[in-house]
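User: Can you fold this complex?
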Amino acid sequence: MTELYDLTIHELQDLLKTKKASSQEITTSVFQRIKSVEPRVQAYITLTEESALAQAKLADEKISSVGAQFIAPLFGIPIGIKDNFLTEGIKTTAGSNILNNYIPPYNGTTVQKLLDAGAIIPGKLNMDEFAMGSSNETSFFGTPKNPWDLERIAGGSSGGSAAAVAAGECFASTGTDTGGSIRLPAALTNLVGIKPTYGRVSRYGVIAFASSLDQVGPLTKDVMDGAIMLQALAGHDPKDSTSINTPVPNYVEGLKKLPKDLPLKGWKIAIPKEYFVEGMDAEVSKATQEAIETLKRLGAECREVSLPHTQYGVPTYYILATAEASSNLARYDGIRYGHRKSDPASLVDLYKKSRSEGFGSEVKRRIMLGTYVLSAGYYDAYYIRAQKVRTLIRQDFEKVFEENDVILTPVSPTPAWKIGEKAADPLKMYLSDIFTININLAGLPALSLPCGMTQSGLPIGMQIVSKHFQEEKMLQAAYAYEQATSWSQMRARL
Amino acid sequence: MYTLEGKKGTYEVVIGLEVHAQMLTQSKLFCSCSTTFGKSPNQNTCPVCLALPGVLPVLNKKVAEFAVKAGFATQSTIARKSVFARKNYFYPDLPKGYQISQYELPICQHGKLTVDVEEEGSQNSGKETKTFGITRIHIEEDAGKLLHEHPEHRSSDSTWVDLNRAGVPLLEIVSEPEMRSPQDAVAYLKKLRQTLIYLGVCDGNMEEGSLRCDANVSVRLVGSKDFGTRTETKNLNSFKHIEKAIHYEATRQIEVLEEGGRIVQETRLWDPDQEKTYSMRSKEDAHDYRYFPDPDLLPLLIEESWIEEIKKSLPELPDTKKARFISDYQLTPYDADILTSLKKLADFFEACLKDYKQPKKVAAWIINEYMRLIKADETMIESTLLKPHHVSETLKLVDDGTISGSASKTVLAKIFETGLSPKEIIEKEGLAQVSDDRALEAEIDKIIANSPKEVERFKAGNDKLLGFFVGQVMKAMQGRANPGKLNELVKKKLSA
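Assistant: Here's the predicted assembly.
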């Protein structure tokens, strides 16, 4: 029999509405699962079992008083929170020693939205330190394991968010995506991961890595759950000046209104040739080609296009993201909160030692890179030039979108790799984001969804990209594909 | 012209000022914390201005309005698009590790300010009108304060951080290096301060630090086209100190040069007790601030319609007001200058005129009496018990002969102290003027009876003694006699 923890949000919602399950049963099932698999998976940094069960009890009371048919989609459902989302009274570390014991006095906007929607917080999820990484190996709190193969990484930076959902330790999770940090781990763990348009979801109360690229999104078991989560997270926030005040469509309804026959008839799907490169894993390439064939059978017209500035994405990203990060991370100075060196000899000593002890090596590397590219004499050559390239990359996409509805690409050049395999080679690690990074530079929405398995049983994901603020389109394309295939119904066996 | 003599020749001084003005907004630049001065440490703080993880700035729109007003008042070009930038450096009073400021695209550029400068050595005669360029005006946030002694338990082994001021909005106003004397600098700063107060943008309080000034000073031989190396002097919190510090710094630089040394580009600190400047840090260990556009804030776009709205809401500025006082009220430029020096004083003056259309009399009273009462303290104008209607009522009582001109001064001084009405004061103090013939004659008779010798001499033709009799009667009646009537009656009695 299928266990509760294996279900999706929309399946649980049906159970809650028909009173076949209670929030307490659902939450308890999650914590039982956590007890059995968490020692092997290591998805969480902090568990909040007591308050989660109390929340579930309140949820059940409300369900019986208000009537089960009236509850909101996330009501009574445990949703894991990445540890760079500020949670009032719950330790928030961003995966870093410098915030090892930091307990925030406020909830970020998206956390508050989830709580207001009735979601239950089972705990805070592991992540690369300050979201800097592709494998979750830069975390101060250990590396989450891929539930499909415990010797492999679950991807990063939202590695805990992916591992927890894939292992049944929560039903969906929040992630942040600066260069692929939601989509990559989702692809490597057979999940749906959504990076919304920049400005679609508030960043207030999320620990910043690179402000002009960071975006909040969900990791879920299927597309319908992705739509439900995005619905809850999206919307203008006056506390975030970069959040855009534009209406949020009903994503779930958008999926339901797709025709059953040839749901993608009339759709034009662009396949950029630059995303099918030499050196790419053969199984990933094959799975993506097969997905294209499936989409054609669903009525879509797929055609090759060119995004000529694709190859400049990674270097451009590592200039802009590190520049912003070097400044964003200046506040961790040991003065007001976070790790502080005891008995410093001077103010400079306090800064140096607190930060040297508090930050890990990847974070230090990026702070140094970012500081360098902003320095007098280098600013024009690096930062300004990178901004110009960013504009060119954005224009590449705009041009393709003039004649196409969505763009389809792979997510990761390879399936999940072994723990430690790339950890010593930052450049190799940086290249694992090669297919996702340009989407952030262009500020576009994109999602990752399961589209295959390797022979050794590792998940493969593909990426669907839409125009700005047209998340509905990519969700529809993904949903149509998902309905025609069975990849996202597969669960890791632990 | 202000010049300094050295052994190698005559030097001139080149001065540019950087002024930081705290804006009079209710809330901070990027959060809704109060800007009230004098609260207990860290009371006016929130996650945003404490730079907790995850917070984001949201611009206080009032600040942009104030900046545009300052731009108009200085005839600056107002940028339709300006950009906030991060200025990165570490210091405990700067919670984010960067200050949000404006760098490449400030909100105002290319402004100017026209001022009247007292010419040296001719305090009475010469005021020269000069125009100084303003390079730029931009918006930025203030830092917090470090206290080296705990405000309550006075332990001084630690440094304490008070972030009440962190995030308070500032206007930085940078002048061109066009001033050539300490007097130029003081006149410029006075005018700038007056303008900001008129606009309601800044309270101009230099002691509390809501208006701060740094002076960039260099020297060069007269006739030289090239600028000398400049130093930046900080901690100038009064006009007197600015004048002294610039003079000191120019003299110091000339001494260094004459001894064959070179000026180091550095930041110096004015010590008001020693009246000297000291080196704080040199350019060699200056920060690389790594400015870049703040990705958390969108560019500040200003729509034409909003600019027009602000333009319409601009108050009358000092120069316009002064010109109007001269033409509408026939005041002398000197009087108009004094009355418009403080906006509140000018408002007080015009309020007095509402029920009493005698501007020259009101102006004379304000300049000669009122200024002394309030001791030139602007805050007194609002707090004092003496209101404009008291002034018009009292002066009317002079005109209708109820009190004498000299008694009016006493009356107004008493209202200033007590807040009573003019009539109450007159009654209480017995200041009503005596115009009644019989009462006056009675007093005159007494004086005549007591001064037989003077009467004789008057009758012998010494007309000048008329004044003696009038004075004696006035004295006996404590100044309450109607002077016209008294003169007439004294003459009549003596010739009888």
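Chain A touches chain B through 45 residues (CB under 8 Å). The longest strand of chain A covers residues 446-453.
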